[in-house]
Write a structure and sequence with these properties.
single chain, 305 residues, alpha/beta, six-stranded mixed beta sheet, four-stranded parallel beta sheet, 11 helices, globular, Cys_Synth/Cystath_Beta-Synth, Cysteine synthase CysM, cysteine synthase activity, pyridoxal phosphate, transferase
């Protein structure tokens, strides 16, 4: 087996404790796609491989070239891992809010990490990365406008869900950050069955949920096509934290806050149904958040929302 064979083909697991507790009808199945099973531990493994390998294959870059990318964590880990595998160099601009585990994983894979200033967010990180490209010495991967991002999900995530549900999927629920996952997977599933509903997830005002974003108009990803998404569910940090804790304690799935937010949205969708198959993305593994207060029950009450 080659390295690239480890990316994708993540399992679908059926949640069978939270749905009954939330009053979900017996005819509705709620399935989580466990992206933490990838080699880099998140859904971003797919996009990182898709973007960097495609650029190499087209001859747009060569081994030894250095990229710079803004990231809140998972994309950075995946890019650092894949860049090292392909002989590329990677500089990652990371907000101070990123957990120690994620930053150290990026460094372990060989990436240079640049932290933003106190109080700066992901939009500031993106601006800094853009400035570094203008100054020279770095190439821009630009995951937010890079069609190879969503195409990787079109080629892999969508077909896997269709295959593993035997075409029974009725609803697909995803986080919205770069929007690559929801764009590529949503396009594929709707081509197979126009009746499949695609649901994106965004944070409520004041909520900080790594991996789930609501961008300003200036920073809205170029790959985002609102026509692919049937509806957007707004989730709070409090809900996302609570559901991440419940996934760990009730379902045995240790995942990050973004996964808790996506599950919150998926449960809202599931409550509206009497039958159906709702698939949601479990974005990453939770071990990269253990230095934070994500799994501290007391932190839920003070979270926004």
């Amino acid at each position: 087996m080659k390295f690239e064979d480890l990316i994708g083909n993540t399992p679908l697991v059926e949640l069978d404790r939270i749905p009954p507790a939330e009053g979900i009808a017996s005819g509705v199945r709620l399935l989580g796609k466990l992206e933490g099973h990838g080699p880099g531990g998140s859904v971003k493994d797919r996009a990182a491989w898709g973007m960097l390998k495609a650029a190499l294959d087209r001859g747009e870059v060569a081994p030894g070239d250095r990229f710079v990318e803004a990231t809140s964590g998972n994309t950075g880990i995946a890019l650092a891992m894949v860049a090292g595998r392909l002989g590329l160099k990677m500089t990652l601009v990371v907000p101070l809010s990123a957990t120690l585990e994620r930053v150290e994983a990026m460094k372990a894979y060989g990436a240079e990490v640049v932290r933003t200033a106190e109080g700066e967010n992901m939009e500031d990180a993106r601006r800094l990365a853009q400035a570094m490209v203008r100054e020279g010495g770095h190439r821009s991967l630009n995951q937010f406008d890079n069609d190879d991002n969503w195409r990787m999900h079109y080629r892999t995530t969508g077909p896997e869900i269709w295959r593993d549900t035997e075409g029974a999927v009725t609803h697909f629920v995803s986080a919205m950050g770069t929007t690559g996952t929801v764009m590529g997977t949503g396009r594929y599933l709707r081509e197979r069955d126009a009746g499949v509903r695609v649901i994106g997830t965004q944070p409520s005002e004041g909520s900080r949920i790594s991996g789930i974003r609501k961008w300003s108009e200036e920073m809205t990803p170029g790959i985002y096509d609102p026509g692919v998404v049937d509806r957007i569910e707004v989730v709070s940090e409090r809900e996302s934290r609570m559901m991440a804790q419940r996934m760990a304690r009730e379902e045995g799935i240790l995942a990050g806050m973004s996964s808790g937010g996506v599950l919150t949205a998926a449960l809202r969708v599931a409550r509206e149904l009497t039958e159906g198959v709702v698939v949601f993305v479990v974005c990453d593994r939770g071990d990269r958040y253990l230095s934070s207060d994500l799994y501290d029950a007391g932190a839920v009450d003070s979270a926004p929302g």
